[in-house]
Design goal:
The protein has 576 residues and is mainly α. It is 72% helix and 6% strand. Helix 6 (316-332) packs across helix 7 (337-365) and helix 9 runs antiparallel to helix 10. The chain is elongated.
């Protein structure tokens, strides 16, 4: 503000000086006299002008100061307003930007989470698809294996059916012979009755003494017949008692047996670390796979199935040998003909030693310490043989245990019974290699190693190829039937299982008053729903007895079947 006042004063001075110069110049042409006269007037006038200019300047300065103060105050107020508005606008903009930023951040986080969720869902779907693919491949492999096993079972089933047909024909012939005998007995009885009538007619014409003698004779004959009947009844009671005692002894022996019940299946597939091993297993021009198949006697199936090689062979022992050798080669990583031959020889040697050790442990477990060590290997080989899906070694041990327990119950030689039970199927260890009946091969093998005659008789007699000559052998035959025929020992085909359940329900539905029937628990129980209006509680009790009796007469089944008759009356009403 001081600078503006100074500037105004300078301007006024310049204006006054210019004005004064102008007057002097305008009057310069006048004479010096006039100049002299006017000098004082000019000075006086100039002083007045200067004084007036000074006063105007001071007034201007005062007004300028007041205006400047007002302008400063107004400017300060305006500046404060502007600053305040600017701060408010800045705060508003800052808050708006903060809200927009937060909104953008939240939107980005939401979109990020949605993207992560979408990616996770796609990843899970991909994982599920891969798992489903692997599951389908596994299911396909299992189905192929099941079809192969099914073919073997059908072949064995067909063989069993042929044997059953032979047995049925034999039973029919025996029944026919028995019917002929019954007809002959009827004819004899009719002839005796006719003779009795004739004899009575003759007696009617006898004397008293003759009639008395004849009466005594007839009483004597009646007494003999009655005595025969009593003896027969006593014999039947003794036979029933003996049968009861035999069942009790067998039940006791079976209850004492708690062996491992399992069916052994050898593995036919080998998992690979990666698909690149398939090429290494095949080798250049297929020489590796040819060498492996030639040394192990199996077929290697290498197809499009990822990370899996299938071993195909009808011999479980060869499959096991090939499986261990292939796994060892994969683990080692060196796969070439020389290494394959070396590994296969090592595995064969180890497997033979393991089989011999298994046979030795089995003999020690049964307490048969005097068996020729040469039989250990053949006993161990039974572990890799199955009969109707039943492991032959486990079956032989089970027969040995049951026969030994039965012998102990009856006071016979338990050690001989266990020995014969263990070796009764020894021929199955090599029958597939030599061909022929396993009983003939078993007899020759046991003769070679000096087994007693009871063992040889058990091998032949358990298939009815020769009569039983020793009581211990009879126990072995009974134990063999118990081990092979007990529920769960041998698998039942799906068709036979379904037909058995259908037959069971059909028998139950044939009774009057039965509304429906359901076979449950794999055919071990049948639940019968009866009409409560047709069947009373007492009749339901009698119906359960009748159904159980008819099932026993018309069906063959393992174990027992529980018959549950359900009679229920329901009264339903609704409260509105």
């Amino acid at each position: 503000m001081n600078v503006a006042v100074i500037v105004v004063a300078i301007l006024l001075a310049l204006i006054s000086g210019g004005f004064l110069g102008y007057l002097l110049k305008s009057r310069g042409k006048r004479t010096l006299e006039e100049a002299g006269v006017r000098v004082e007037e000019a000075e006086t006038e100039a002083k007045g002008i200067i004084q007036k200019a000074r006063e105007e300047a001071e007034e201007i300065i005062r007004k300028a100061r007041e205006e400047a103060r007002e302008i400063r105050i107004s400017a300060q107020n305006e500046a404060e307003k502007i600053v305040k508005l600017a701060q408010e606008e800045a705060d508003r903009l800052r808050l708006t930007m903060k809200e927009e930023t937060e909104k953008i951040r939240l939107d980005l986080e939401r979109k990020s989470k949605e993207l992560e969720g979408y990616l996770e869902e796609r990843r899970l779907e991909l994982t599920k698809l891969e798992q489903a693919l692997h599951q389908r491949e596994s299911n396909l492999e299992r189905r192929i294996q099941a079809i192969e096993r099914r073919e073997e079972e059908l072949y064995k089933r067909e063989k069993e059916i042929r044997e059953l047909e032979k047995e049925i024909n034999q039973i029919q012939r025996e029944i026919q012979e028995r019917m002929k005998e019954i007809e002959e007995e009827k004819k004899e009885i009719e002839a005796l009755r006719n003779r009795e009538l004739l004899e009575l007619q003759r007696i009617a014409n006898m004397t008293l003494e003759e009639a008395r003698n004849e009466l005594f004779k007839r009483v004597e004959e009646a007494a003999k017949i009655e005595a025969i009947r009593v003896a027969k009844r006593i014999e039947e009671e003794a036979r029933e008692r003996a049968e009861f005692e035999a069942k009790k002894i067998i039940a006791t022996a079976v209850q004492r047996l708690s062996s491992e019940i399992a069916t052994n299946y050898t593995t036919t597939t080998v998992e690979l670390p990666s698909n690149e091993f398939k090429g290494r297993i095949i080798g250049r021009e297929g020489r590796n796979i040819r060498t492996f198949e030639l040394l192990t006697g199996v077929d290697l199936i290498i197809d499009d199935t990822p990370d899996i090689v299938t071993i195909s062979s009808f011999d479980p022992m060869r499959r096991e040998l090939a499986k261990e050798a292939l796994e060892r080669l994969i683990q080692d990583g060196r796969i070439h003909p020389a290494r394959i031959e070396e590994v296969v020889l090592e595995v064969k040697k180890e497997m033979d030693e393991r089989i011999r050790k298994m046979g030795e442990e089995t003999c020690m477990e049964l307490g048969l310490y005097d068996i020729n060590p040469g039989l250990y290997y053949y006993i161990g080989k039974l572990y890799y043989r199955t009969s109707y899906s039943q492991n032959v070694l486990l079956h032989s041990k089970e027969v040995a245990y049951i026969a030994g327990m039965l012998a102990e119950e009856l006071g016979l030689d338990a050690k001989v019974a266990r020995r014969a039970g263990l070796l009764h199927d020894i021929g199955k260890a090599i029958s597939h290699e030599l061909g022929g009946s396993h009983t003939d091969i078993g007899v020759e093998l046991c003769k070679k190693y000096g087994e007693p005659d009871q063992v040889l008789n058990a091998i032949k007699a358990h298939h009815n190829e020769e009569p039983v000559r020793y009581p211990e052998v009879a126990l072995v035959c009974a134990a063999d039937a118990l081990s092979a025929a007990r529920p769960g020992a041998r698998r039942e085909s799906l068709e036979a299982y379904i037909k058995r359940l259908e037959k069971l329900e059909e028998i139950v539905k044939s009774f009057k008053g039965v509304q429906n029937a359901y076979a449950v628990q794999a055919g071990r129980e049948v639940r019968v729903i009866v009409n409560p209006e047709e069947i009373s509680d007492e009749e339901a009790y009698a119906l359960s007895k009748d159904i159980a009796r008819k099932i026993e007469e018309e069906m063959q089944f393992p174990g027992q079947i529980k018959v549950v008759v359900i009679r229920e009356v329901r009264h339903v009403e609704y409260a509105k």
